[in-house]
Amino acid sequence: MVAMAHQGAAVEQFDRWLRHEFLDLNTELEEAYFAAHREILYGPDLEVIKQAIALNGAKLVAQIVEAGTTPVDARERYQLLGAVGLYLGACRRHEVDVPEHELVESLANLLGASLGVAPRYVFAHQCLYGYRTFTALDDERVFVTHNGLGVLSYQRAAHALRRIPAMGVSSPLAAYLLEDARAALDDVLLSNRTLSETLNVDRFFLNIRPYFKPYQVGGVEFRGANAGDFAAINEIDLLLGLCAAHDPFYQRVLTEKYAYVPPEDQVLLRAAVTGVSLLELLFREAATGPVTAQLRANAERFLAVCRAHGAAYTFHHHRLVKPFLETPAKHAPEERVNDITASGPPLDVVLGGLQRLSDLRAARDRPGVVVTAQASLNKLREVINVEGR
Hints:
Blueprint (H helix, E strand, L loop, with lengths): L1 H18 L1 H15 L8 H23 L7 H21 L6 H15 L7 H5 L10 H25 L1 H4 L4 H27 L2 H8 L6 E3 L2 E3 L9 H9 L7 H10 L5 H10 L5 H10 L5 H37 L17 H15 L12 H13 L3
Antiparallel strand pairs: 1-2
Helix pairs in contact: 1-3, 1-4, 2-3, 2-10, 3-4, 3-5, 4-5, 7-9, 7-11, 9-15, 10-15, 11-13, 14-17, 15-16, 15-17
């Protein structure tokens, strides 16, 4: 009991440091970088600030380790992993070595292994497991808040769609859930619009994006945090039938993401790949006899959900990814070009994958490049119109 109380006090002290001194030091560095319009600067005065982050953070993590135990509660372990990860992410961002890195990284590895997740912070640690930012900059608050609202909206849509197979796609209750899913996806688009209109491009590129870079833990590099690291958007893809679990490209998306979603989302991802899509269930129901007015209405609602999903992600790709990442990257110093993305691969590879996902989610075929669910959705429109006459 004494050891647990000691560790609890050490964790609380580390949390207070992250919310105050750590926040202030990062903000001071970012203001200096931004004033020079550079991603990073070097110099004696700035080095003092960087070392204060590195040394003070390592000291506080060491106190947690010295307590000799980890939190019993899984949620508390996940939150602690995020706290340690924020510290490691800041050291990576400012390009300073972590003092006693083996001790710090061993705690991250222990927490990650106990939870079955990558031993680094992810976006869930910033928006759903406490509200954390690296800096006090308004633009980072805007970024975390509106991406977080988008996550909550995606989760609401996925929850609604997930309940439909058990009750049947022609159920009048399914109509309510489809309407709820569409409204939630409209909210995703609203969050994306607000983000695109409010977030400053240069602030994002110079002062926010660099914290999302890959960093090493125990000699292994783990890719950067991504605001899309949740199961919900993939559940929606698969439940709508816009993406397929047997598609090699989409399998790679799911496999790569698995270690970076929260533990409870891993359960949802595993379940999503084995389910039957609502699109397939609509076809099955229509094949059993005349299309009823309720089935036709639900099918129309389903198509509206598909349009809303495609619209939200297409907007994200063209109004957030391209102007906030692709365009400013063209003007980045040559030595920084290969270090742009959070995902690790070169920027053109990342953008190509995101474009393919945009096409799949919008059901937009590109002849010779990608075949989507476009033909199946058109067939559904024919079935509900012809059979309903």
